[in-house]
Amino acid sequence: MGLTGSDGLPGPKGNPGEKGQKGELGVQGPPGLNGTRGYTGDQGLPGEAGTPGENGIPGAKGAPGFPGPVGQDGQPGVPGLKGDKGDLGDPGVPGREGPRGESGLDGTDGEPGQRGKKGEQGEPGETGLPGPAGQKGASGVMTGDNTGLNERESSPPGADPTEEVKWVRASNSDITLVSVSAPQVYHKMSTFWGAWLKDPAVPSDKIWTMSHFNGAILREWANMEKLQAKEVSRNYYLPLYWDGTGHVIFNNSLYFHVRGSREIARYDMISESIKATVKLPGAGFRHTKYLYATQYTYIDLEIDENGLWAIYGTPDNNGNMVISKLDTATLGVIKTINTEYEKHSAGDAFVIGGILYTTKSPRDRETTVNFGYDLYTHKALLDLEIPFTNEKGLNSMVSYNPLERVLYSWNMGYLVKYQLELQ
Fold it and tell me: Which among 192, 184, 259, 219 has a CA at the least distance from the CA of 416?
């Protein structure tokens, strides 16, 4: 037998054997490393309420709350001690002119002065007294009818015979309003209420303004350009305060309603003094007894071709609009008429040719002149529908100028003018 040879090279890898049976469970190994945190699960059901904890430490003081409503007035307190005497106040508005004193003794005649230069021609005076009756003429024969005769209202017993003459309609006032133009806006003033005025008896470029619904300063402007540049030419300090915005200027006199009274005053702008006053019996002037559907005006003064008119209301006329013709010099009441038109139905009013006209609304931008009343024939014009524009809103003053034959208005502080078509 020969010698054992060396080991041969490994043979090729055999095929895998069959899978053996599962062995027994081995010994538990050490815990593995913590895995990454999973997503938050759904919220669980609320647990039972725990026992209340102890009170915590008081929190910081909160911010102050809003002021509460004003409480009711308390009982009057005990009067305090008398205070020290105050400083002397500013000088007050001059008081009314006192009664005229007794005439002094006649002085000795002075030397005749030099003859002055001839003055400018004045305005026509008031109609004089009727002249004496002429001699009776021979009897004639009547032809035609007498409808062309000028009617005059009969005067009450004891009346001044000149009043009948003053009530005759002026020859140049046979006109009626046909249309009102679109408004022309000139300037914005600093107050919501007021009036701007021209003098129809003294033609000039001068303009006067009275700002606010009460005051005592009348401002004069040389013309519209100076007004727009705020260059006042003169201030008149009235001795009485005015109420409302229904003022007029005529023949160098300002006519206005005296504040807190039934009085109308005539202020002479040359002598700068009150020349006449008159009380309108029963005229409303307190609280909310305003004249129109606006506020603050109780008596509205107007000028037309026939003279001076005062529009107001009285309790005796059940809130209807009343209008009185006044003498421009003495302010004597010549005649008073009840229009039977409810005053608060009017936005404003003006007189043209002896006819009272009213606007329907003082606030609506597009409104109408919707009522007229002929003060001489006592006939109401009920079918008026003349378009009228309140350009900026509330119109607190509308007034007619018989020289220019236009309307002036104070519209939300704007100075506005309307051209008119008359026939």
Answer: 184
